[in-house]
Amino acid sequence: MQNYNPKFKTDLKSRCYKFSLDLISLIDDLPNQRSSRIISDQLMRSGTSIGANLVEASASSSRLEFKRYHEIALKSANETKYWLALLRDSGKENKENVNKFLEEVKEIANMIAAGVIKLKRNKTFNFLLLFLPFNFYLLTFI
Fold first, then answer.
1. Domains annotated on the chain, with CATH
2. Phi-psi bin for 73: left (phi > 0), alpha (psi -120 to 50), beta?
């Protein structure tokens, strides 16, 4: 997600980190039943991998790799929505509490999705620049 505002990047990463910490607390408070354990294992994996993939994207060696890690983070966010909804609708946790988590992960997913869309759009634009006459390309930046 190449938003050049460093506060945006830090805000997204810190929100994901805080979300992961809050998710750990939520999972630790779930009842010790087989169904809760299965849901909590999947929820832990998908929920914490959002931020982990964004951090990994920061160390990527190419634009394609950068975009791919953001796409994976978005998929993890969408999977997390599923497990949270299942947790809420199964009655294993307070609906209001789970809805707060759902709202946060939806906002995080929207932020990541906006970045992925922008990365895909910019690739097309950069590709089109290759076909413009070189002189025209230089004039646009002078």
1. 6-141 (1.20.1440.60)
2. alpha
